[in-house]
Amino acid sequence: MATPCRLMLILLAAVAAAASHPAHEFCAAAGGGGAGSCGGGDGTRILIKGGTVVNAHRAEEADVYIEDGVVVAVRPNIPVGDDNVKVIDATGKYVMPGGIDPHTHLEMEFMGTVTIDDFFSGHAAALAGGTTMHIDFVIPVNGNLTAGIESYKHKAEKSAMDYGFHMAITKWNDEVSREMEVMVKEHGINSFKFFMAYKGSLMVTDDLLLQGLQKCKSLGALAMVHAENGNAVAEGQKRMIDLGITGPEGHALSSPPVLEGEATSRAIRLAKFVNTPLYVVHVMSIDAMEEIAKAKREGQRVIGEPVVSGLVLDDSWLWDPDFATASKYVMSPPIREAGHGKALQAALSSGILQLVGTDHCTFNSTQKAFGSDDFRKIPNGVNGIEERMHIIWDTMVETGKITVTDYVRVTSTECAKIFNIYPRKGAILEGSDADIIILNPKRSFVMGTHTHHSRSNTNVYEGRKGKGLVEVTISRGRVVWEDGNLNVVPGSGRYIRTPPFGYLFDGIEKLDAIYRAGLRAPVVRSKAAA
After folding, report:
1. Rounded-to-integer distance, Cα 415 and Cα 426, Å
2. Which range (77-91, 143-157, 295-309, 392-406) has the least confidence?
3. pTM > 0.90
4. N or C: which end of the chain has fewer CB within 10 A?
């Protein structure tokens, strides 16, 4: 039976939530799925006391009370009131929204094999690293979107945390156009990715991209691009092979930054022509970043997503004499030479780039060895879903490049806003899902295969040390990571629908009207006398 004190606590919290952040609106905003439309917790009650609660808009000393997977109250000095409440002492620590990774590839068929992390091992790794939700890319089956989504729904049956989906578009016809509408309206997908790279497999042509951008605009869905000039990359690969360069270094040499910059520029201009928002995934070079910066200065709605590997690694590893070492750094676009990472960090701190993903796409050393005699056959991809939150804290917050509120913005809140699931996700507010981490800024970490939860036997951050350790991860009101112990169950994850027409579409119709009004056409001309 609830004590009078606890009943008063719940009543006060409910009144506050109804007055300022209606919980039913939070849940309705994202639709939900799986185990209930809101929260989805197991009835556990948690009180986090004494920490600094950090949201993207402010940091404050406060306690956080959680019940049934939802944040019920955020305010100072909340009394315990009940022996059945789990109390977590966060004194001297930061209490923050769990990370949301916008860019992952779990159990993806690619380059003749399948990524080594599935929806359980990938989720276990994510939760141990402080990420409580991710958005994965569905790859169509022979271009068929419906077959693709059904395949990924099956893969996700073993999920252990919340997840969403983007959809890739690899061909174009009337059926694909119709299926895109079905994906948005029936499956809760509000983003579509177009590969400008991987000629002969996933790459789309400019005319397909143009039609896709127009369709995305009509649906209120965000167009995303992998920006590399696929034709030029194929030519670069041939050039390297002709020169006898068959090792991993050939991967970087065949796809220089100029090709990423060119494709980024082309995609931005096509999006401007259509007047639709654009999201550029894994921005790896100064060349691409500067194209995004230029577009933003001109008022265009372009989102730039760097990934952890591009921010903190350089391409020197690709020249390592040991193939197993060098090959694990092969990804696309390639990790760039020293200097690009620092520039991308500066762009992230200044707001030119808005959020950080991982492009977590893991292959083990045996899979990487498929290309031991030809770098073109090395499966492209690196890890990062477990490491992202720690590396960004150590690289950006500990060095003073961004604030703690900026940290929450680039690792969680901005992603939630872009994909239209804020404030259900990406915030610690009354009514938000209780996806929360507790980070101790005084503790240190060491990364590598001996500690990570990925199934891969390689790690591109092997031996990396830093400050700022996620001590506790709470997923929908359940403590899933604490004191170095992981407590996750296959099948406990939940699909999060992402509604169309997010904030990036606000005012688009007004811009269209201004465009039409400024055409000064058609001109009415009198016909010449016969």
Report:
1. 8
2. 77-91
3. yes
4. C
